[in-house]
Amino acid sequence: MPQIMMSIDQIMAREKRDMLFIRFGKPFDPGKRSDPVRKRHFEWFASKGLRYETAAPRGLLEGDPGIFAVYFDGPDDPRIAEYSSIFEDANGKSLASDEYQMVILSYKDWLQNSPDPDEEPF
Question: For the segment 55-112, what is each residue's pLDDT rounded down to a tens digit?
C-alpha cells in the first residue's frame, strides 16, 4: 500500500514552529529484517511518547528519504537533552554521524527560505 509522505515544507507550514528532524545516512532496505540504528531510535521515541513521521525533501517522489520529523514539545523539551545524552557527543554531534544526525529547523529560518506556495516543486 502506498505511504502518504509529507514534505519538510508541508510539515513546517502545518506546525508553524521549530521542528526537529532526524536524518538517517543509509536508506532503509526492505529486504533486511531490521535496521538496528533506526530500531533503537524508534524504540526510544516510543518509550518517551514521541510521535514521528517520514518527511520528504522538496521534489522527492518515491522511496525512503531517511528523514523523519520528531515531535518534541519545542526546543526546551527536556527529552531533547535526554536524547542528546544517549545519541550525541558533548557538542551535539551524532555518535555515528554516517548513520544519523538530529537537526533543528527553526520556523523563522524556514519562513525566510520557504518556497513560493504557488510554485511547482519540480
Answer: 988 766 666 678 899 999 988 999 999 999 999 999 989 999 999 999 999 999 999 8
